[in-house]
Amino acid sequence: MSLFEQTLQQMETAANLMGLTDDARRILEHPEKILQVSIPVRMDDGSIRVFEGYRVQHSTIRGPAKGGIRYANQVDLDEVKALAAWMTIKCAVVGIPLGGGKGGVKVTAKDLSQAELERLTRGYIKAIAPIIGPKKDVPAPDMYTNPQIMAWAADEFSQLQGENTLGVVTGKPLAVGGSIGRDSATAQGSIYVFEKYLATTGLKVKTAVVQGFGNAGSFLAQFLVEKGITVLGVSDSNGGIYNEKGVDVAQVKEVKTQSGSVQNYTDALKVSNEDLLAMPCDVLFLAAKENEVRHDNAESIKAKLIVELANGPTTIEADRILASKKINVIPDILANAGGVVVSYFELVQNEANFYWSKDEVQTRLKEIMETALDGVFEAQQRCNNLTKDSEDTACENVTLRQAAFMCALEKIEAAMRFRGKI
Asked: Is 326 a catalytic residue?
């Protein structure tokens, strides 16, 4: 099953639970706009390479499309379509007035020089410029893209428009219209949801494992330590480390920066990414990439709770296994939405040309994330109560993922109806 088919199946499950209209379903099954581009780039040796890029707008019914740009060799149209659809759902779950988009370029970014990356970025933005803009579609950083790349993107678009249009992308450096708190927003948002979940359910958590030690994962591990939770293990693309007494997160971060791999941290057992998932812990944070928890390894997971910071880290088959093991999953479309929320804040600040303090950003982010989790819990309870009051068992044991999709689809359907689309 392709990633986009998996996304549609998740939507379909929630749509059946909530009774989404057939008209709304048909619209959401198809992205509004797909742009595929070729980007010729003059390399440092004088040769020209042509890169393949994409920009997909899944839905703009609730506002401008919003979603990152990734530079990765595995980028293809199916992946970009799936990620754009997830962004539609994610923005609706947290209640911000944006739709879903995503972009990508098929490239191994680490093989390019800084000058080549800049030329690639400017070429990509020039190619997709007709369909992006603060009121159309607002890209952001994603896998292997960063604030510098967003600064080049904003500058290129501004030159094409003949005026400063910094709000065309978010995730920019502070010096060119970025928002305070954007660098740690994904991790911070997940912490707010995680803490609210613990307060609501009464679950006690003392230990954690973090799969993925990139931007989101490293910030997350640091925040967990600050909350008094012992981080037992972390991993990156090279593999993982685990110590039943805990690892020194600050030292792991230093080792990773200096050597390129967390596995060079000496005071821990070296393990594979696969083995790390099965290590004992109270909560497992998935901050690596999609399809990491599958039918062939879900049974081995020992955590009481999973929190998804990556997009699509758990397959549909694994979801069923985890539900049967009574392991709750705080899904990606809620848990990692802090990034898009603060991106929305950045867009608002750019348009107003008025910038907020760190406290203002954090206060607003916390409120939005906690309110979103409350809404998901309410949808879950509503559906479970429906089962108790009738012979229909379709809603029995609704997962948080299903409830989150239901919350989003309700808002999207309402927007379609009020705008006369259905």
From this structure: no
Reported as a single tens digit per residue, the pLDDT across 234-274 is 999 899 999 999 999 999 999 999 999 999 999 999 999 99
pTM: predicted TM-score of the whole model, two decimal places = 0.93
Query: Percent helix, strand, coil in the chain (nearest 5)?
Result: 50, 20, 30
Cβ neighbours of residue 311 closer than 8 Å, sequence gap 6 or more: 83, 86, 289, 290, 332, 336
Query: What are the angstrom distances between the C-alpha of 60 and each of 35, 135, 243, 321, 422?
Result: 15, 10, 46, 34, 15
What does the DSSP 8-state code read for residue 237?
T
101 beta partners:
57
Selection from 299, 234, 298 nearest residue 270 by Cα: 234
Q: Up-side HSE of residue 222: CA atoms within 13 Å toward CB? A: 15
CA distance 125 to 55: 10
Q: Which residues pair with 50 in a beta bridge?
A: 40
Spatial neighbors of 151 by CB under 8 A, at least 6 apart, are: 172, 173, 176
pLDDT beyond 60 at 389:
no
What is d(CA 264, CA 250) in angstroms, rounded to the nearest whole number?
14
Go through 222-249 and write b for each residue having 16 or more CB atoms within 10 A of its CB, e for each that does not: bbbbeeebbbbbbbbebbbbbbeebbeb
Contacts with 173 (C-beta within 8 Å, 6 or more apart), sequence order: 147, 148, 150, 151
Among 66, 102, 196, 366, the active-site one is 102
- Residue 387: pLDDT over 60: no
Collapse the DSSP code of 181 into the 3-class scheme (helix H, G, I; strand E, B; otherwise coil) and give the result: coil
Q: 272 is written with which tokens?
A: 């594979």
99 vs 7, 61, 177, 420, CA distance in Å? 16, 7, 22, 17
Residue 289 has pLDDT above 80, yes or no: yes
- Summarised one tens digit per residue, pLDDT across range 66-101 is 999 999 999 999 999 999 999 999 999 999 999 999
Question: What's the CA gap between 122 and 136, in Å, rounded?
Answer: 19
Question: Given its phi and psi angles, is residue 402 left (phi above 0), alpha (psi -120 to 50 degrees) or beta?
Answer: alpha
